[in-house]
C-alpha cells in the first residue's frame, strides 16, 4: 500500500476519483474480482489538449500507468454481486458541455461532442442548470444499431448504455464509480433506442435506501418526472422536436434494467470478437486478451502519442493558414 500511495503522489497524472478494480488482461466479459470495499487499484486519467476545445481528450490509465480503453478495458461488473456495476462519469451534474466516450477513436478517450464544427453544450432546461444528474456510461455495453430491440421495436444507437447517477455528490469527469441500478427509461431518439439507466453511487450516504425504481419516487419525489421532462425538452432549443419514449415514458424497474444491461453486454462481446459489424467503432483494447482487437501496452502508448502529434499538426496548419 505504501508503494502504491508513493506512486500516486509522484505521478503527474490526475487520479480519477473513487476506487475501482483494474482488470489485468481479463478474458472477454470476465468479472473484476474482489469487491469494491476491498479494491486496492485505481484508475487514473490524463488530459491532453485544453478543455472546451475540439482537441481536448481525457485518456484512461490503470494503476500500473498503462493506457486502457474505458469502453472496452474497464469491466462491466464490479464483482459477482448481481447489482453492482462500474460507471464511467462523462458529465458532472450541473455542467453543460456534452462530453462523451469517443467510440470511434483509438482507446476511446472522453472528448466534447462536436456538431457542424461547433462544440456542443446542452441548454439549461428551466428550472435546471445543465445535466441534472451525474451522466455517464456502463463499460463493456453496446447498443447495436443493426439489432432491433424486441421491447421498443427500434435498433440501438451505436453507443455504450447511458447512466443517470442520482446520488447527492457531484462527481468528476473521468471518475469510475460503483453504482446500483434502480431502473431504466427508453428514449427513442430519431428512431433509435437510447436507454437511460437510473442508478446511484453505492458510496452515496443514502445508497442503502435505494433498491428499485419505486425507492426513487419515495425518497426523491419529483426526480423521475424531472428526468422525463429534461429528456423530452432538451433538444428543443436546438430547433428540434420533443423527444419520444417507449412505454409512454414509463420507467421500468431494476429487473427490467438488468436484462437490458445483459443484452447490451452480449452485443459488446460480439463486437469485440468481430462477430458483428461495428462500422466505425474502434475496438482497440489492452486487457481483453482473447479479442482480435487486442494490442500491447507499447502499441497503446504509441496510439495516444499519435493523437497528440495529430492535433499539434492541425494547430500548426490552422495558425499557418491564418497568418498567411
From TrEMBL:
CDD domains listed in its UniProt record: pyrophosphatase
Taxonomic path: Eukaryota, Metazoa, Chordata, Craniata, Vertebrata
Gene label: PPA2
Family: Belongs to the PPase family.
Listed cofactors: Mg(2+)
Keywords of the record: Acetylation, Hydrolase, Magnesium, Metal-binding
EC number: 3.6.1.1
PROSITE patterns in the record: PPASE (PS00387)
Protein name: inorganic diphosphatase
One Gene Ontology term from the biological process aspect of the record: phosphate-containing compound metabolic process
GO cellular component: cytoplasm
Residue stretches in coiled coil: none
GO MF annotation terms: inorganic diphosphate phosphatase activity; magnesium ion binding
Assembly and interaction partners: Homodimer.
Species this chain originates from: Sus scrofa
Superkingdom: Eukaryota
